[in-house]
Amino acid sequence: MADTTNGVITVTGRKKFCKAHAGDISLPVITHMAWGDGGVDENGQPKATTGNEIGLYNELMKKPIESHSYVNEEETTCRYTATLDKGELTGNEISEMGLFDSDGDMIAYRTFMRKGKDADIPQIYDMDEIF
Known about the structure:
By secondary structure, this protein is mainly beta. Helices cover about 10% and strands about 45% of the residues. The strands form 2 sheets. The chain has a 5-stranded antiparallel beta sheet with strand order 1-7-6-2-3. A 3-stranded antiparallel beta sheet has the order 4-5-8, with no helix packed on it.
């Protein structure tokens, strides 16, 4: 059954966490954010996420993470930041994003309402990984 939320740590990400906690693998770091326009249904509503996603529905661009920060005192939420610069994805309507690790696997995925991209305005995206 599909989850009714729009953001999720993927099954791939959860498997890696489990194996790293058991000492069987080293956990690869989050290195990239990707954006796409496939995150909404035919009515323009964000698609529900399942955790089984392995990539964006329609990836348009992937860029290195610019920064990260811990956004709560407990340090159980990490916010990753990346920017679509002026001139990037001009005219597109962004509706999905994902975090990818150094192995190239998508670890977290989020859908949202369409956001149009103008040529002369950068868009800064934050994505929280919550534990």
